[in-house]
Each structure stands twice: as C-alpha cells, then as structure tokens.
Design brief:
This protein is an alpha+beta fold and 447 residues long. It folds into 2 domains: 46-232, Alpha/alpha barrel (Glycosyltransferase); 234-423, Glycoside hydrolase 144 (GH144) (Glycosyltransferase), CATH 1.50.10. It has 15 helices and 15 strands. The strands form 6 sheets. It has a 5-stranded antiparallel sheet. Strand 2 and strand 3 (117-119) form a beta hairpin. The radius of gyration is 21 Å and the shape is globular. The relative contact order is 0.14.
Length: 447
C-alpha cells in the first residue's frame, strides 16, 4: 500500500507534517490500527441488500442517513488502504444510491423522504421513517456529501460506475433547497406539524449544508440565506484566544471531513483575518486549556485528557452510591467552556481533530489510551467514557457499543491527515466549488 499512498499524494496541513515518511512508525502504526477498526464498522454492519448502515452497533439500531453518508465516504478509503476491494464497496455504494433513488418521497408518516430530503432515522430493511423523527436537513446534507464523494471516486467508464454517477447526480439535483430555507435553513420538518420552530443559527456543523444548498444548479438556496446564517455567529475570546465560538468539538470537525477549508475564506472570516481550519485549530487549544483548568474538578481531566463533544453518556440510571446525586446528561452535545459537562469524554474526539493540531491530538490519544484502555473495546472507540464513574474493578464507565458517526469522522479525518484523499475528491466536485464561491469563499485552492 505504500505505493498507492504515494500515488494519492499528501496535502500539507499547516502545522501537520508533510507526509507519512516524516512521522515515526509508531504513530503510523497507531493511526493505521485505529483507522482500520473504524472503517471496518461500516464493512461489518452494512445491509448489502440496500446499502443502509445502522446508527450504532447496538441490537435493533435503526439506520441513520448521516451514517450512510459517512459510509459512502469511507469506502474509498477502504479500497485505497487494501482493506476491501473496489468491487465490494461499489456494490454497497450502488445499493445505497439505488435505494434512495427508489425510496418513497411522498412525505407521509411512513415514507423515506420528501422533496429530496430524508427522515433522520429509517428502518434498516424497509427504509421507512422511524420514531416519528424529523425530515432532517443536516443529516440529508451529510448523506449527500457521501453520495458526491462516491460520485467523484468511482470515475471509471464502467456500466456500474457510470450508473452510480448518474444516480448521484439525480439525487443531488432533486433536492428542493429553497423549500428548506426561509431566512436561515430550517432544521427539520414533520408531516404532522410542518417545519420545526428553529433554524440553523449560530456557528455549527452546517457549513457543508449551506455549501450543498448553494451549489445546486437545479434549485439553489438564495445567497442571502448564507449571509443571514453568518450574521448569527458569535466571535469570542476564550483563554486569550480569539475564535468563532462553538462549544462541542464535533462542530469544528464534521464539515471539515469533506471540505478543505485551509486558506479559503468567506466574508466573515476575511473580516476576522482567519479561516475555518484555523478556527478549528484554536478550538483544540481551547478544549485542552479547559480540561487543564478543569473548573468543575472532574476525574481524569488534564491537558492530555480532553474531548467534549456530542456523544453518548451516563444518565441518572447509571449512577450508584456516592454518584447517585450527580447530574448526568445521557446523550448530549457536551462543550466548553459553558457546558454541558458531566465528566464524560469522547476518546475519539481529539483524533477527529488530527489535521488541525497533530502533535497535541496524538499526545492526547496516547495518554488517554494508556490511562483508559477500556475506552476502545475490541480496538474500536466507544462513544464515550467517564473516569469519575468507575466500576468495582476501577475501570471507567464506558458507553456500550459503537456509533457510526464517531467511526466515520475518525476514519475520514485520519485519512485526510495521512493522504488528503477525501479533501481532494471533493475539491474536484464542481458543485462543491460553486457552492463555496456563491457563499463568498475566496483564495487558497479556490483561486
């Protein structure tokens, strides 16, 4: 595989080393093992009949459409790393795209989607809406980002690869983006009650959503929607660091899994003499400083033990004995410095920031792995662990099973650091570059 990785090329990431040869073999081996385990989540759990992938590894888990988007983005990594054949992942990818093409788009309570968008959670077999969940704009965007990644990767003049690219185009072009946006893009819609009563406001993981919405040649979002969104941003100074505020770490990671933001700036970032990649780097420094200060005095926190993000966590039913009165949040978007925070950390979260601050994140990864090996059951990261809730043997509380979102962001960000594969694929997508330009991005590789 060394020859293949050389062929893929390497993208400099500012403070990141230039390529695999400049890193010690122990780091390379560690990253390889973690990335491989994360990729295998998708290869092991996909339903080959329809390409759907479960939200978690827990029994009876539904499909999350966002996790399918991560799967479609991870499959090219599996091929390039010799962890799966091109034919195998093409089969899975084509099955997924055929399913979404043929799915019920009537918008009813048991449909799969409406106006090109899809319900957040659907049945793993039939693909019907579950749990009266919302038609999710952001999760549809993450699915479409994966669909476009597959479209860019499977570029051969072959009947099945040609079909995949044609379906990908069809799925992207049928989304009615203007229906989803009244000012800022709405967060969701339900057939029982219409649009949810809140939009995408404040800095969030939704840059990729706006870029996709503005890049469509069929029914694009109007440019003033993006301006309306960035007008809700909150610029702060925390611990002496100026940055665009968002507390949970995943917000600083998700859109970066697909889009290379180094050196490209929209009007907001030009005014603040920064870019979104640099902003995510600063988010790493703020996370580390918060954990070092540890204002709530949680067990285990330190400059090399951090990772507050959206993740599973213990709840009131978990705490026993002296911990029974603790306030625990279950699944929540934990963040710094304003919380919520209940002592629960996501071991994978620093690693998903690898391209932003490689030395700092690798140090955190190694420290937490040494202290809390239980956070990686079977070699794959659990969603979270809580050092303050230890069992009788002294091991931390660990979230049961694995989450597809966690595995996807880990695999993609490690690969972007190692080879830049996904970034380069999407840099070649004209709809992505058009959406970025319509949102006002200039400079860097867009020049």
């Amino acid at each position: 595989m060394a020859t293949q990785r050389t062929a893929l090329g390497s993208i400099s990431t500012g403070s990141a080393p230039a390529g695999p040869a400049s890193r010690c073999s122990s780091d390379e081996d560690l990253l390889d093992a973690i990335e491989h385990a994360a990729v295998d989540y998708f290869l092991e759990s996909v339903n080959p009949a329809n390409g759907l992938v479960p939200d978690t590894s827990r029994a009876g888990s539904p499909c999350s459409i966002a996790v399918v988007g991560f799967a479609l983005s991870v499959y090219p990594i599996a091929v390039e790393r010799d962890w799966a054949s091109r034919e195998q992942v093409l089969e899975y990818s084509l099955a997924a795209l055929r399913f979404f093409r043929d799915s019920d788009q009537g918008g009813g309570p048991d449909a799969t989607g409406y106006k090109g968008f899809y319900y957040h959670f659907i049945d793993m077999q039939a693909g019907k809406r579950l749990w009266r969940c919302e038609l999710s704009m952001i999760d549809t965007a993450l699915l479409l980002a994966g669909i476009l990644t597959a479209r860019m990767y499977f570029d051969r003049d072959d009947p099945e690869e040609n079909e995949l690219r044609a379906i990908a185009e069809q799925l992207y072009l049928r989304v009615d983006w203007r229906w989803s946006g009244h000012g800022t893009i709405r967060q969701g819609w339900k057939p029982e009650s219409g649009f949810l009563h809140y939009g995408w406001e404040g800095y969030s993981e939704s840059i990729v959503l706006y870029v996709l919405a503005m890049g469509s040649p069929a029914c694009p979002l109007l440019t003033d929607a993006y301006d309306a969104w960035t007008a809700t941003y909150q610029w702060e100074n925390l611990y002496g660091i100026d940055f665009l505020y968002a507390g949970p770490l995943f917000i600083h990671q998700f859109s970066h899994a697909w889009i290379d933001f180094r050196g490209i700036r929209d009007a907001f970032m030009r005014d603040n003499r920064s870019d979104y990649f640099e902003n995510s780097r600063r988010a790493v420094l703020i996370q580390r400083e918060y954990a070092r200060r540890n204002p709530l005095e949680f067990a285990g926190y330190g400059e090399n033990c951090w990772g507050l993000t959206a993740c599973d966590g213990p709840d009131a039913s978990t705490a026993t004995g002296a911990d029974a009165g603790a306030r625990l949040f279950g699944y929540a978007a934990r963040g710094v410095p304003y919380g919520p925070d209940d002592g629960t950390l996501a071991g994978w979260a620093p690693l998903a920031s690898l391209p932003f601050e490689p030395a700092i994140t690798l140090q955190a990864v190694r420290t937490m792995q040494q202290r809390y090996p239980e956070m990686r059951p079977d070699g794959r990261y659990a969603s979270s662990f809580n050092p303050g809730l230890a069992n009788t043997s002294g091991a931390s509380w660990v979230s049961p099973g694995h989450y597809g979102l966690d595995q996807g962001i880990v695999a993609m960000m490690i690969e972007n650091y190692r080879s830049g594969l996904v970034w380069r694929l999407l840099r070649g997508c004209a709809w992505i570059t058009h959406g970025l330009r319509r949102a006002g991005f200039r400079g860097g590789w867009l020049g």
